Amino acid sequence: MTLPNDAPLQKLQFYVTTAYTCGYLPKKLAQSLIATPQTLVDGRVYSGLIQQGFRRSGKFAYRPHCEHCNACISVRLPVHAFEATRSQQRAFKKHAPLQATIREASYDAEHFALYLTYQQQRHPSSLESAMPQEDEATQYQQFLCQSNVDSVMVEFRDAQQQLKMVSVIDIVMDGLSAVYTFYDTHDKASYGTYSILWQIEWAKQLGLDYLYLGYWIADSQKMAYKQQFQPQEKLIEGVWVR
């Protein structure tokens, strides 16, 4: 399978993975369409792929390709039309004192420690308790630190310079892509909401049009928060519609 219209995209080939357990819908199996070779998926190529519903995990660009399910819907925010709710405005004001530092995507032991704590609190089933920490570190690096595109890690610290949150972000031709965010779950805070609001503002500063939020699934509680950000566009049958 090849994609038309753009010459760099025409050089890609695509394969469908074997079925695996869906991480969002119980008792469902999922499959993905993978773009290969991954060395060709640079910033320009990925900018085209993300417009067609692909996402990045490490150096792999993929899109859901399930035989009997189309629940995963790509969503993006047109940042210049975004209107924050009152609760979002309060969250932005509350966390505005956090100091944001934009860094190159790379391994940092302090980031990794925060990531482990976040996973243990929010997604305990995603960590294998018997896995040695060095293997967990390798998975973390492959997932979030390795990239063939323009990727950054934004760290957020409080007044005491304590690390509170890290957001992994890709910069594509027409917007930002929110890859992953992890934060201090012990605080009574709205870090996840603030991260998206911060990325919206950064996209505006860069003169970009969109913030890509990945996939939304109507029946997945994990995805429900994405609908709180409006207006947004969904990729329906290859067309972005508001």
From TrEMBL:
It catalyses: N-terminal L-glutamyl-[protein] + L-leucyl-tRNA(Leu) = N-terminal L-leucyl-L-glutamyl-[protein] + tRNA(Leu) + H(+); N-terminal L-aspartyl-[protein] + L-leucyl-tRNA(Leu) = N-terminal L-leucyl-L-aspartyl-[protein] + tRNA(Leu) + H(+). Transmembrane segments: none annotated. SUPFAM superfamilies: Acyl-CoA N-acyltransferases (Nat). It holds the Pfam family ATE_C. InterPro entries: Acyl_CoA_acyltransferase, Asp_Glu_LeuTrfase, N-end_Aminoacyl_Trfase, N-end_Aminoacyl_Trfase_C, N-end_Aminoacyl_Trfase_N. Residues 21-90 form the N-end aminoacyl transferase N-terminal domain. One of its GO terms (molecular function) is arginyl-tRNA--protein transferase activity. It comes from the Bacteria. It is an enzyme of class 2 (transferase). Its EC number is 2.3.2.29. Coiled coil: none annotated. Its main location: cytoplasm. Keywords: Acyltransferase, Cytoplasm, Transferase. It is found in: Cytoplasm. Residues 110-235 form the N-end rule aminoacyl transferase C-terminal domain. PANTHER family: ARGININE-TRNA-PROTEIN TRANSFERASE 1, ARGINYL-TRNA--PROTEIN TRANSFERASE 1. Functions in the N-end rule pathway of protein degradation where it conjugates Leu from its aminoacyl-tRNA to the N-termini of proteins containing an N-terminal aspartate or glutamate. Belongs to the R-transferase family. Bpt subfamily. This is Aspartate/glutamate leucyltransferase. It comes from Methylophilus glucosoxydans. The gene is bpt.
